[in-house]
Amino acid sequence: MAITSHDVARLAGVSQPTVSRALRDQWGVSASTRRKVREAARTLGYVPIQAGRTLSTQTSGRIGIVSAELSNPFYPAIIEPVHDELARLGFRTILVTDRGHEPVELEPIIDGSLDGVILTTTDLDSQLPYELRRRGVPFVLLNRDTLQQEYDACVVNNTVGVWDVAKLLLGLDHQRIGAIFGPDTASTGLERRTGFARALERLGASLPNSLTFSGPFSSTTGSQGFQYLWKAKPTAIFCANDVIALGALSEAAALGVRIPKDVTLVGFDNIPMSSWNIFGLTTIGVSLEEMAMTAVGLLTRRMEDTEREVQRVTMQPLLTLRSTHGRPRALEEETR
Amino acid sequence: MAITSHDVARLAGVSQPTVSRALRDQWGVSASTRRKVREAARTLGYVPIQAGRTLSTQTSGRIGIVSAELSNPFYPAIIEPVHDELARLGFRTILVTDRGHEPVELEPIIDGSLDGVILTTTDLDSQLPYELRRRGVPFVLLNRDTLQQEYDACVVNNTVGVWDVAKLLLGLDHQRIGAIFGPDTASTGLERRTGFARALERLGASLPNSLTFSGPFSSTTGSQGFQYLWKAKPTAIFCANDVIALGALSEAAALGVRIPKDVTLVGFDNIPMSSWNIFGLTTIGVSLEEMAMTAVGLLTRRMEDTEREVQRVTMQPLLTLRSTHGRPRALEEETR
DNA sequence: CTATTCTTCGCATACTTATGCATGTCAAGC
DNA sequence: GCTTGACATGCATAAGTATGCGAAGAATAG
Predict the structure, then answer these.
(1) Is A76 in contact with B83 (Cβ distance < 8 A)?
(2) Looking at the predicted structure, is the pLDDT value of residue A336 above 60?
(3) Of A183, A274, A334, B27, which sits most exposed with the smallest number of CB within 10 A?
């Protein structure tokens, strides 16, 4: 059915290996035969069959990226720059979806169809990194880390991030601070929760359990959490990531709660949607483009040399002040 | 490096073909050898190499889905149900991104690594469908159609949809109706623009050019369009899709324009984000799940029989009334 | 006990591309 | 004119899996 290099060879009057060499501009084929082969390939509309290539070269030019549901806006935001950077380097991106509740299917990752993998949704106790290393599949952790911290990784300094958020809130004189946290099964979830509690404590404030809510990193968690916390009337709420914050913001709108007049809301990650006018979310994060490029860099170096030393990059997040933070209302009225 | 079926064969003391047959539960291998082979495969952690399979069977079990940037929330919303339905049928989904300004790269689609393709971002004059048919790659158009309308497709009845929107707006007594349209290069953009204008006309209203704005299907178009149209003080604005409407909504918030009190806003598609409390977008659309399942059904039938008659499905959209529509302010005050 | 049938397995090969090695050709140098 | 070398090309084969077909063995029938 499909056109093969043999068909091209026949038409050009050369052998199949010559076709292979000519089309890939390899050394050792004369200008005239190259022209003939080119012409024949163009006439037939020849496209090399990927499976043949992969089998022969033991390499596919494809990189997998494991990520959660796309409907969660954080993942498109991180996948897109990764995709672009990989494309720039000549790799194609294959999306492998992680359903969260069940472990990622191993087979499509280790069946030889991927040259490397970028993991964005790793649980702290995930067996996937171990398994990939055992099988010799190059990979890098992006955003989320594992407990052992012994693999190539590019992550955010969550501890510093939440510390800065705590300082921001206390600097605005907030006393009743609440928080909506992510899952403790992810490094981001755990580090942001424990880090934020510790930061408040060290800075002389506290975070009572009653002002705390936890759930998956989804907008639903944000709206449920806000609904729950609002009854306890905090003056500020830290959300463990932007998606949660957007859910909270959305719920606030439904309840008629004004942000930041009635309550301050701060997120984490600085995803593109946070800058939409309707949200204007004050948040902290690193450049996702930079993070993506770094991770891709780590991966390609790992692919070149499987034995090289483990390399880990921790990026320092920066606050982006928009319009969801302010001083507590009581104080604000006092000042007037 | 990797473990092959030959390794399994050696360990189990059988031939390679027997391994192949045993692991796929094929007929003609005794229960005891099957057990031996299973055991050996498990011990070695054998996973069949996909390239070998693909080459041998001329089939990859992978379906491509061509879609635009993931940061545009419409696409995750349509990709996700497609992915799930394909997974249910035992296919893996490969994402092929369409950069919009340049034609989709043909090679990764026709290099034999895909059994079929779902096109979601086809331009009216796209050559891709023609090329795919010529090469014998099964495909189906989803959401967007081509000018010729001669390929398998599952699309929305845009004409009926915009007609219903026009009736809704006129039923609320709106006089000054504006619109933010999508690109005329896509069937959805064109049909919604011409259809809406015609519907208003037939219903005794009109759509002056000054109350019209066009751009790509992005939230930026929505915010720019709203900014532009707002100067002309319309009482209602129809947005050609939800993403545009969300952008408009966001811009309205920034300008302090109250929705629906100051202006009514209606979208098209009914993507999940439209139901977020902060948006509460009144919109029209079909079930994206149903549309996805239908498209996948058309595709699998095409894969089974390349020669079968072209089949096209047009789905009827339904209005979802939320909280961005109302009567014009002037009339509302009059009534009081 | 032979002839027939069925079951189980291996041999050979196909799918397509890439590459090491051998061969052939032609020009330049002595 | 013969040797040497550079260059261009083809042959043979490798990568891993699946399958048609034949052979061998076992079971059944006569």
Answers:
(1) no
(2) no
(3) B27
